Every structure is written in structure tokens, then in C-alpha cells.
Amino acid sequence: MRVYVPLSLSGLASVHRAGEVGPGPLTAYAVTPGLREWYVSDDIEELEYAALNRAAAASLRLVAGKPDELRRRVVVALDVPDGAAVADPDHILDASSLGEVRLADAVPLSKAAAVHVDADDAEKDVAAAAAALGAADLGDDDAQFTVDGAEDHELLWFGIQEIPGLIA
User: What DSSP string runs through the chain?
Assistant: First the structure.
């Protein structure tokens, strides 16, 4: 099963040093029954893209909570055994937690399929979105528009061997 773990660049550096994504329990995003129902799609690529975007939104929250953090969203795509990622049945149809799963244990970085990171040109919009999150959460439409601006940037794909260059 492919899961998407939200991180920050400093989190990615820690993962790289440790050689594993963890410690557990970890929050990740995946194609869950709730995500399938919400997006009403059978296209696995489309659903995985939706899970990746859910993880990117969670990464934005991590970045927003770290004022000194470089303003880029980071998501690590991991391949884990079926059953290793468990959806919370109490939140399965809660729109705010669509696709959210828990991993009980750390996952070796060798199980990573890719790292997805914002490009340099996204930093300004990601910084603005991070600053606007609180107001957006309170229903401010202008702030939500700013947060949505970060989502207009596609995360770039990097191989695991490229992590040292990303965190340098």
C-alpha cells in the first residue's frame, strides 16, 4: 500500500539522518474507503494524487507551526504492507481527515518510493498560506483563497537518492 507522510524540510533531514520515517505512530494519507467515496472515482492514479494533496495540506500545517522553517511542503511516499496503515473508523467520513491513516511503527527510508517537494517559486505562496491558515480555519474566505494559492503549486518528484541535495 502506498502512503504519503507529510513532513517539513527539517523533518526530511531528520528522517534522512535516522534512516527511517518515524518514530511511530505516524499520521499519513492513503487511498482509503472514505477517500474513494468522497472523490467518487475508481481511477487509482487520481485517488493517489488526492491522497498526496491531503498530505501536502498537512505538510503546510507543519510548516506553519515552525516559524524558522523554509516555506516548502514536503511529502514522502512510502510503500508499506497492506494492513500497516489503519484508518480511524470514527473519522472515516470526516472531510477534514479524508484519507488519513495511522502507521503504528517507523518505516525504513528504504521503503520510500519518492519525495515530493515544492519548487523554489512556491515559497512565497506557501509562506502566505502558512500565515493565513488560522484565519482560514475560522472561516475567513480571503484567507482560504490564500491557502488555496499554495495548492496551485504542484509538488515536484525526487528520488530518494536526491534527499541530500534537498536538505543541503
Answer: -EEEEEE-HHHHHHHHHHTEE-SSSEEEE---HHHHHHHT---HHHHHHHHHHHHHHHHHHHHHT-TTS-S--EEEEEE--TTSEEE-GGGTT-GGGTTEEEESS-EEGGGEEEEEE--GGGHHHHHHHHHHHHHHHTT-HHHHHHHHHHHTSPPEEE-GGGHHHHH-
